[in-house]
Amino acid sequence: MTKHSEAVYVGRLPDVRMSFQLMGLHARKADSNWTYPSHEHSMYEIHWMMEGQMSMLINGKLYHQSKGDLLFIRPGMTHSCTGAGPKGFTYFSVHFSVHDTSFCRELNRSKDPYYPADSSMVSAISPVLSTLYDLATEHLSDSLSSSKQMKVHAAVFELLGSLVGQLSQNASIPLSRKEEIAHQIAEHIEDSVRYIHLHGEIQESNRTWIQDIAKSLCMSTSQVNRIFREVYGRAPRKYLSETLLNEAQRLLQQTDLNVDHIAMMLGYKTNAHFSRQFKRWTGIAPSEFRLGAQHPVTRN
């Protein structure tokens, strides 16, 4: 009788499928009269004061930054800045976007943008910000080698991990019961996208999966739609489309798979159907998006 060998897991981590863009990473030294006009953008921004003093107006509220103080500005926040001391100031700024809905949910948990120099947030992320600052100043005088570019990537992942860890610990407002339910619905939707990615199947009607989510939560479909819209500001169907778009963008940016293959992986029966949907989402074709990701426009 043949004895079959056995193997068991002694450890396992989830697959990593995150797409992010790091843009506008720069250190700037400005005189006391320097100002930057009011603006907003679709990216997250970390603004770290290195020397001097400045003031930042965010959504109508004024914050004063001194050496070591940090501001974390979320997408859509209107902000402007000006010098606040007689000798000018130096700051370091990181702009980034993340195409991962659950990760962005964590980034948006706490709405407070200001973290003083002696806060646990600054203590946690200032070492990696210093690493990025050193690499940025080095890059100004000479192009970074491949190994240094990988250090930038490693530092960014460390930064994101530390940032989310601190925000999760220091969320200023505990989740309400309604928010907890909405987050469970979001997790079900994200699981649906992972299923599509693995099995290449997408349902023509959203009614079935909404009913499945409602059943698993012992709720009606109207309750699921209402609670999710109240918390997330959009319907579950819209959130599903956004999650699929994030996955499509990640595959276009981080893989060499052709568009036909990506369309199949995301459950579309034809490339034409996927391309039409992607263009409806973004205004450009998948091939144009991939080309733009390879040659990004530099931002101030």
- The span between the termini is 71 Å
CATH superfamily of the largest domain: Regulatory protein AraC
List the secondary-structure elements in sequence, H or E.
EEEEEEEEHEHHHHHHHHH
CATH architecture label name of the largest domain:
Sandwich
Helix tally equals: 10
As for the CATH topology of the largest domain, it is Jelly Rolls
So what's the overall shape? Answer: globular
The helix/strand class is alpha+beta
The tally of structural domains comes to: 2
Q: Please state the average pLDDT score.
A: 83
CATH class of the largest domain: Mainly Beta
Largest sheet: 5 strands, antiparallel
Radius of gyration: 22 Å
Tally of extended strands? 9
Q: Could you list the spans in which at least 5 consecutive residues all have pLDDT below 50? A: none
Strand order of the largest sheet: 1-8-3-6-9
- How much of the polypeptide forms β-strand, as a percent range? 15-25%
Helix content: 40-55%
Describe the protein's topology.
Layout (H helix, E strand, L loop, with lengths): L18 E12 L4 E5 L4 E9 L1 E5 L2 E5 L4 E4 L5 E5 L5 E11 L1 H7 L6 E2 L4 H22 L4 H24 L7 H23 L7 H10 L4 H12 L3 H19 L4 H7 L5 H12 L3 H9 L6
Structure description:
This protein is of the alpha+beta class. It folds into two domains: 19-169, Jelly Rolls; 177-294, Arc Repressor Mutant, subunit A, CATH 1.10.10. It has ten helices and nine strands. A five-stranded antiparallel β-sheet has the order 1-8-3-6-9. Strand 4 (54-58) and strand 5 (61-65) form a beta hairpin. Helix 4 (177-199) packs across helix 6 and helix 4 crosses helix 7 (236-254). The longest helix is centred in the middle third of the chain and has 24 residues, at 146-169. The radius of gyration is 22 Å and the shape is globular.
